[in-house]
Amino acid sequence: MGFLQDRFGIPESVFANHHLLRRGRIVWLLSKDDRLIDLASLPVESVGLPLLRQVNTQLKPTTAALQLLGLHANKNIVSLALDQLRELVQKKEIKGEFDTSPGYVIVVAETVIIGCALSVPGRLISQFPRHLFTEETWDYLPAGNRG
After folding, report:
1. Running DSSP on this structure, what letter comes out for residue 16?
2. 52 in Cβ contact with 24 (< 8 Å)
3. Where do the domains of the chain lie?
4. Which class does domain 76-129 fall in?
5. CA atoms in the 13 A half-sphere facing the CB of 120
6. CB–CB of 88/94 below 8 Å?
7. What predicted TM-score, i.e. pTM, was given to this entire model?
8. 23-45, pLDDT tens digit by residue?
9. What are the strands of the beta sheet with 18-23, ordered from one edge?
């Protein structure tokens, strides 16, 4: 996937076992299975993982795609402290100089890939989905305690 390799340094080999399908403004990623090619003409709503969306003339990676594939990235990554992430979530942007080229970037906090932001000179603009953050907090349940 040329865009992800050029923008984020994600190697083409990461996509070796996957198909890429495009419908309208969305590029979907799904596991490679040659039988799926025969099914491409079916009128299904969605298939696989939404990987990229075309926004105007640019491609924008989805949060799910970055959370899955971002560990393979080696450039255009912004690491934020938790207080910076909190400000980005609350105010939708933060000011500062970030070591990236202008465009979409991967946001990381404490080694956890959070999602996508837009880097422009002097600021970072959240591209997180509205449903990603809420006023409620999570209760952590250890794996052995599912009750």
Report:
1. T
2. no
3. 1-74, 76-129
4. mainly beta
5. 7
6. yes
7. 0.83
8. 889 999 988 887 777 776 778 77
9. 18-23, 26-31, 49-55, 58-61
